[in-house]
Amino acid sequence: MTRRSMRFPQHALSFLAVCVIASGCSPAGSSMSFASGGTAARNGVAQQDQIARGRFLVISHDCGGCHGGGSDPASNRWLTGVKDSTDEFHIGPFITRPKNLTPDNATGMGRFSERQIFNSLRYGLRPEETPDVEITSTTPGQGNFPAHPHYLAPPMPWMAWRHMPDQDLWAIAAYLKKAVKPVRNRVEDSEGPPDFWASEMTPAKIGSYPAAAFPTANEH
Amino acid sequence: MLHPQRLLALLPLSLSLVAISAPSERMRSRLPKGDADPPALINISRKPKTVEVNITAGVTTLSLMPGVKSEVFAYNGHVPGPTLDVREGDHVIVHFHNNLPEPTTVHWHGIHLPFESDGSPFHPIKPGESHDYEFTVRPGTAGTYWYHPHPDRRTGFAIGKGLFGAIIVRAADDPLAATIPERLLVLSDNRFLQDGSIDFPDAASAHGGIDEENGREGPVLFVNGHVSPTLSIRSGEVQRWRIINASAGRIYRIALSGHTMLHIGSDGGLFETPREVKELLLTTGERVEILVRGSDAPGAKAVLQDLPYDRYAPQTRPKDWKTTLDLLTLQTTGESPVEPIAIPTHLRAVPPLDTTKVSAVRTVVFGQGMINGKTMDMARVDVSAKVGATEIWEIENVVGMDHPFHLHGFQFQVLDRDGVAEPYRSWKDMLNIPKHSTARIIVRYDDYPGKWMFHCHILDHEDHGMMGVLEVRQ
């Protein structure tokens, strides 16, 4: 893999668009409600079905393209995060290092709840820096949305994937926490601006959630 | 274990091990009070084994930076506040009065005392009100402690405004007191605006956000409220320094240029054996006791420095973090060298807590600004335990910034850090948990039921909810 460099922000966001289209991400689903803290049981989906759904979503959304293993869950690097500097992204002056998504306690997602992972996918909030609470607003300081949000670093395309239905995001969280084996791989921290990208993650720049109602002027 | 010959390198010994009898009051060796020393609280009690003092917190104007006046909060008009100097077994009564425009408390950091006297956010004292704090100093707890406010969400502000003071607990059988003069060094830092006022930016501003993230630091370092003081020492003289980190967010990596130091104690007092070190990390709220020795060359100067230490996340790491800052100058006088003295290689017993008695292992996960995914809720109990229980706490820091752990009420011992056994035993109430690391501690809840705080001692983190409640029940 070659070193991936890009200028920020315009090129980073255009990269996201390409990434999302290439991975076949569907646009906003019918479920636009805020996170309800729901679980597989609440949604009436058996856990195995939920995990199978989560696995399908992780593979089809190319999580492994950045976080390791490509689209092959049999890869020994499956979701284990950055291996070396060739896996890093250069976003303007900053380096982004995709994290270890396996549920290892010390170096991965083991100490984050499924709700923290859900919140990171829906709201772009770094799970290690966002409380394990249900969020009911996208306005900083309201509805448990942090007053000083810490956003996942570009090019993580959460601003597109947040439009997945709740149950799909819960399925991804369940798959990562329950069905992937923990692998110890410490990924050096990503860099970024002191506002943790907050000035780049405004509705004017990344659109709003939920998406505009169908049909817009571009649709029929 | 430090071999006596290693000690010889630093401190010429006449004997490798020396028996020292308990010093009498008259024998206790103190350096003469200089400009750099904080004042002492005056004991107004005439009863034996009783220390009764008055402390008032109020607003005043002082010159912290030379030539500049600043409005400060101060204990009895001083920054640092006057030192509470007591002996093991003393009954301490503090008549406290709050003359501040806001609620406050006095937390006796590290002292084992009843819950009602802990000065935690559960017991605020309103403006204009008074409160008597009472506790008996437990035998075996001789060491260096400190007192400071601990009100709900305002601790960083109140300490930054000037409210902190030292506590020294002395043992009747201190192995060093008879022969070695001592100094107290209270370290703090601060930041000022052009008009001399202490800089607390709006929390919503970019600067305020970085303070909240990093913990507020200032470029001006103080030792006992003085900028770059000079201390004197005779050639060959050994001094005992008690150092307290009273900063809100700064972690000091201290070194004495051209010297090694003998690290002899930590938060809860002396080690069993001195350790020779070139530098020491002093996290927020933490204390160390060290022995330093005057240079062999009369007239020589050494500088106590704060070396660069990267406690920060990449996003908010200060650009000048690699700067070495000077704390004080140690001037060796022109007098003839003093006779070498003997440093005992055994200081005292630090009995280990019994790991076979452990009744629970707790996992405490430090995220940024939260513990176990939660922010502080005074109405919630995060850990519940019985009086007398012994527990292990695994404290995991899962973020890219150091977080100093503090437990109220009970001293603990460190078992290991990232799986590496702690090389020596000591009593602690502060433990730095470096970024992405885990430490295991063992603690026994000796008496005193109540609700005890555990928290990050970066005060901005604490004030924004990086705190939990341990309830100890009968």
What's the tally of helices of chain A?
7
Kindly state the mean pLDDT of chain B as a whole number? Answer: 92
Oligomeric state as shown: heterodimer
Query: How widely separated are the two ends of chain A?
Result: 41 Å
Catalogue the unreliable spans of chain A. 5-37
The CATH topology of the largest domain in chain B corresponds to Immunoglobulin-like
**Form type of chain B:** globular
In order across it, which strands form the biggest sheet of chain B? 10-9-12-17-14-15
Q: Topology as H/E string of chain A?
A: EHHHEEHHHH
Strand content of chain A: under 5%
Biggest pleated-sheet summary of chain B: 6 strands, mixed
Describe this structure in words.
The complex is a heterodimer of chains A (220) and B (474). Chain A has a domain at 4-26 and 75-199. Helices cover 29% and strands 4% of the residues of chain A. Chain A has helices spanning 10-22, 47-60, 63-67, 114-123, 158-161, 166-179, 203-206, and strands at 4-6, 89-91, 94-96. Chain A has a 3-stranded mixed β-sheet, with no helix packed on it. In chain A, α2 crosses α6 and α4 crosses α6 (166-179). With 474 residues, chain B is mainly beta. Chain B has 4 helices and 30 strands. Chain B has helices at residues 4-10, 155-160, 206-214, 459-463, and strands spanning 50-62, 70-75, 81-87, 91-99, 107-109, 130-136, 143-148, 165-170, 182-190, 220-223, 230-233, 238-245, 252-256, 261-266, 269-277, 280-282, 287-293, 301-306, 325-332, 358-367, 370-371, 383-386, 390-397, 403-407, 412-417, 420-421, 430-433, 437-444, 450-456, 467-473. In chain B, strands 10-9-12-17-14-15 form a 6-stranded mixed β-sheet, with helices on one face. A 6-stranded mixed β-sheet of chain B has the order 21-20-23-28-25-26, with no helix packed on it. A 5-stranded mixed β-sheet of chain B has the order 11-19-18-13-16, with no helix packed on it. The radius of gyration of chain B is 21 Å and the shape is globular. The chains are: A mainly alpha (220), B mainly beta (474). The interface between A and B is medium-sized, with 25 and 25 residues.
